[in-house]
Amino acid sequence: MSFRRTPRVHGLMTRSYADDLRLFGSGKAKLGLLALVLAYLGLPFFLTSDFWLSVLDYAGIAAIGALGLNLLTGYTGQVSLGHAFFIGLGAYAAAQLGGPDALNLPLPLWLLGAAVFGVLVGALIGPFALRLRGNYLAIVTLGLIFLGEHLFRNLKEVTGGNSGTNVDTTATLGGLDFKDLALLGENFSFNQGYFWLIWGLVGLVALLVKNLVRTRPGRALQAVRDRDVAAEVVGVQLGRYKVGAFAVSSGLAALAGALLGSYQQFVSPDEFSLFLSIQYIAIIIVGGVGTVFGSIVGALVLGGLPGLIDKYSASIPGVSTGSGDSGFISVFSLNQAIFGLLIVLFLVFEPRGLAAVWLRVKAYFKAWPFSY
Amino acid sequence: MSEFLQLCFNGTALGARYALVALGFVIIYRATGVINFAQGGLLALGAYLAYALNDTAALPFALAVIGAVIASGLIGAATERVVLRKMVGQPVFAVVMVTIGMLFILEQTITSIWGFEALNLGDPWGVQIVRAGDVVLAQRDLWTIGIAGAVLAAFFAFFRFSKLGVAMRATAFDQEAALAQGISARRVFAVSWGISGALACLAGVTLAAGPAALSPGIGAVALIAFPAMIVGGLDSPVGAVLGGLIIGITQALTTGYQEDLFGWAGANFAAVMPYVVMVLILLVRPYGLFGTREVRRI
Amino acid sequence: MRSSRMWAAAAAAAMLGVAGCGGADSEEGGSGGSAAKKGEAPKTVPGFDGNKIRVGALSPLSGPVAVIGKPLTNGNQIFFDALNKRGGIAGKYKVKLVQEDTQYKPDVAVQRYNRLKNDVVAFTQILGTPSVLAVLPQLKRDKIIGAPASLDAFWVREPNLLPVGGPYQGQAINGLDYYVKNGGEGKRICSLSQDDAYGEAGKEGVDFAAEKLAFKLASAQKFKQADKDVTGQIQALAKAKCDAVFLTSLPSDSGTIWGTAAKLGFAPRWIGQSPSWIDELGASPLKEYLAKTVWIVAEGTEWGDDSVAGMKQMVADVERFDPKQDPDYYFSFGYVQGKAMAAVLEKAVELGDLSHEGVLKASEELGEVAFDGLFGDYTYGAPEERKPPTQSTIFKVDAAKPYALGTLEKDYESDAVKDFEYKAR
């Protein structure tokens, strides 16, 4: 308890570095956070469309993986095309740890176990991969995808080989079974239950990553990204931090993979392709490289977009929708092309992603009606 | 013995294709420091252009290929002019991702125009073969090796004897010094992309020749040309050619002998072999066989 | 205390909500468990409004696999168009096909499944082994029946799946048996299969045939789908001096494989799985090579064979409802799927219950369904009692025929195939 009275200041004003670094900014930010928490708790009561719930569930899983990738690529500046490999690793680990025929561990343990497995494999591969920089690193991590796919296809005892494996994990936490949730006298569907599970974890992981990047290790990572030589000179142990970031990022990817497996209840090697890695990179580009908020927004936008395009494709001219329909471009092609276009346009015109757009909008309204 | 020779011949034909793609990578990398992930898309586009000129515009095959090569070169240069020039000075990651984004757009353009069905390119080589003892030489493979050889010779002559070629080497060596000598870096960039596009088209044509072999998937070969380029060293044209041949021959030998020698590695190991070779070589030589060691300045 | 109350609530909920997923959005309306009376008009349920029955199709309608998904879905559609013209299910209920594009991606398939599930009584088509496997756990939870559009053997024993046709394994066994019994005795037999679940199904059949017919595989090669270079594999087969090669591939790769073999001067007897053929190959520069070397093992008869009732009906329906449809194996497959689903729906109407669970139950009481020679007849019923058709038709390449395939031996049934056991996954 200090005797000095903390004077009330305007929400926009920061008076010390501590103010800049604090987790939940000003009063307004706290309000916003409260609104998010309420939305998280309340949404399944209002949103009953299984389609949109499953879109949100997939987006939440992607958000967790994207937070991991953003830590590595956005904050530490290391390009990895191998993220899909670690997602796959987590999914198969979940099948082994949480399945009734395997270890049959409870929810927290198989989730944590899959993440730890990802961290360990990441820490093992990291030192070799991270000797290389920039372009070389990108291509070597690309190799990881191909080697991983080969392993997933051939280690039949563990992965089920080409026909994939069931991921029949339990999802019970303290009496709450997320697969078949009964709360306050009401029954909730599988998709509603998993919404709470997945997005609860998104919040947890976001908090973890935010805390990591605003403290000492986070600053070290950003120093490595901005000028690795300078970082080394001021005493950042390059190798240790790079490998550390790689390991944590792999762990989060594995966590996302474990959730993916558990939600889908089935995974096969076809899913963990280069395309998945590129999808994750696109998420952080569109959302905002080097921001926690951006990883989540990016996942929501890229996860929801195909659904929206599909919904309105009938009213877009030249798009073919059904089996007998002819048009210039199919919905699939349109989706893929928009995906590519988003990457290019964001990098060329707004390299800092939607997060920066949001900041700009916010700044505009802060100073409103003075637009300078 | 004849089996070994046969495998080596097939590997060389395959390697020649990889070399053409890898060379395209290296040219762009030397000039601009960018790995062009869209090369696979340009390759497929080039092959489809040749198909369109031959089939739809009814040009003779040779003319169609020449036309497609020129068009692909122009498309390559235009891509640099319209998109990549805006990315000068951006981090490596961003530029790589822009080329990946372009790959998606190219692929969808191709499938929207020509569909997904496998097509016949209309090459005159078909399935004709030449026998040399026990070894069967497919005409298409002989032509591929011939085209690759001729292109490589022309390429090295261009860099040694032509003014533009020397300018490009100078720019690759030291951009600022080259600028000071009055060399236009813009022109060098555009020409590099142009040459690279033309090479991609040739690689595409040699890949798509044969019965019902032209499909949007042929761009995937670029993913195997990556290891070829890395094995040789990112910035070495000689390395790209050697890397392509090394990867091609290793892959052919792996498929041929896998069952007898290392069946334990899992079926179809040849598909990942290029990456295994790449990792092994990088462990010994982090900058590839002929790559320039990167100097870190403080 | 709290947690025990929660448990009680959960238990009560479990007892009440037998209809499946429960949840705030459940529209099951208690029809699930309640005993419906035979002969009575079925109650309105999700997917059935009293007049129209809606069934779903989850198919890749765009993207590379659309080459398969589009004709297959069109087969579903035209079957139901013709059925509706005749009056519909039980002569009065029209069937509406609702299509969703899965793009051949399991995650998209799961999302689209969720979009449709409360809007249809069943799924008449789910295309792609990975997509079926990803949707299957949800089908089980929601007690819905779906028809997989592939010939994998493990579908046979899944209560929530309604397969048609004899599995790939059976095709391989019959094809090789035919070869061995017709001059292939003592010849060197090999296999070439793609490196995925489909390829493994074919390979399993080949291995079973090898055991039953007492031959040793001279070489077994695999290739990666869409790999443009199969020279190594072909050479290994040539080195093993194969007289016959059983091929499990998709048409896009078949072209590459046969092209490579032709250019290496390797011409064994190729015996291909039904999906490895597409009629464009019959018009390619390879056609002479193919006519000499290739057999395809499939089911039923050649396109346009008027002597087979089912084929005659189908060709007439095509001419009436979509004359633009070319002869296509996948189209027939979709048409047959429609027939199977119609049989299930008839049964469900007869039992007076079109709810998800009612349709599922109807499928178990179905018995044998005849496909009038289009495909072999299938005995449905409880999963452990199902009997898929065991006969295959061997075709040879014949450019003059509508699908470039002419019959070599119709409805061939080996002894070996009868011993093959279909296991659950």
What would you note in describing this structure?
The complex is a heterotrimer of chains A (about 375), B (about 300) and C (about 425). By secondary structure, chain A is mostly helical. In chain A, about 70% of the residues lie in helices and about 5% in strands. The radius of gyration of chain B is 19 Å and the shape is globular. By secondary structure, chain B is an all-alpha fold. Chain B has a domain of about 200 residues. In chain C, about 40% of the residues lie in helices and about 15% in strands. At the A-C interface, helix 3, strand 3, strand 5, helix 8 and helix 13 of A face helix 1, helix 2, helix 3, helix 4 and helix 6 of C. Chain B: One of its GO terms (cellular component) is plasma membrane. Chain B: It comes from uncultured Solirubrobacteraceae bacterium.
Instruction: Give, in order, the helices and strands of chain C.
Output: HEHEHEHEHEHEHEHEHEHHHEEEEH
CATH class of the largest domain in chain C: Alpha Beta
> What pair of chains forms the biggest interface?
A-C, 51 and 58 residues
Percent in helix of chain C: 40-55%
In angstroms, what separates the terminal alpha carbons of chain C?
A: 42 Å
Shape of chain C: globular
Based on DSSP secondary structure assignment, what is the total number of beta strands of chain B?
2
So what's the oligomer here? heterotrimer
- Helix coverage percent of chain B: 55-70%
The number of distinct helices of chain C, counting runs of at least 4 residues, comes to 13
Strand content of chain B: under 5%
* Average residue-wise pLDDT of chain B: 86
The radius of gyration computed from the alpha-carbon positions of chain C, rounded to a whole number of angstroms, is 23 Å
- Write down the Rg of chain B: 19 Å
**Number of β-strand runs of chain C:** 13
The CATH topology of the largest domain in chain C comes to Rossmann fold
Secondary-structure map with pairings?
The complex is a heterotrimer of chains A (372), B (298) and C (425).
Chain A: H1 17-21, H2 27-46, H3 50-75, H4 83-98, H5 107-129, H6 134-154, H7 156-159, E1 165-166, E2 172-173, E3 176-177, E4 181-183, E5 186-188, H8 190-214, H9 216-226, H10 228-233, H11 238-264, E6 266-267, H12 274-287, H13 292-312, E7 319-320, E8 329-330, H14 331-349, H15 353-366
Parallel strand pairs in A: 7-8
Antiparallel strand pairs in A: 1-6, 2-3, 4-5
Chain B: H1 2-32, H2 39-56, H3 61-82, H4 92-114, E1 129-132, E2 135-138, H5 139-161, H6 163-173, H7 175-180, H8 185-208, H9 222-232, H10 237-261, H11 273-284
Antiparallel strand pairs in B: 1-2
Helix pairs in contact in B: 1-5, 1-8, 1-9, 1-10, 2-3, 2-4, 2-8, 3-8, 5-6, 5-8, 6-8, 9-10, 9-11
Chain C: H1 2-16, E1 52-59, H2 66-85, E2 94-101, H3 106-116, E3 122-126, H4 129-142, E4 146-148, H5 168-184, E5 189-194, H6 197-213, E6 217-223, H7 231-239, E7 244-248, H8 251-263, E8 269-273, H9 287-293, E9 294-298, H10 309-321, H11 329-351, H12 356-364, E10 368-369, E11 378-379, E12 392-397, E13 405-412, H13 415-419
Parallel strand pairs in C: 1-2, 1-3, 3-4, 5-6, 5-7, 7-8, 8-9
Antiparallel strand pairs in C: 9-12, 10-11, 12-13
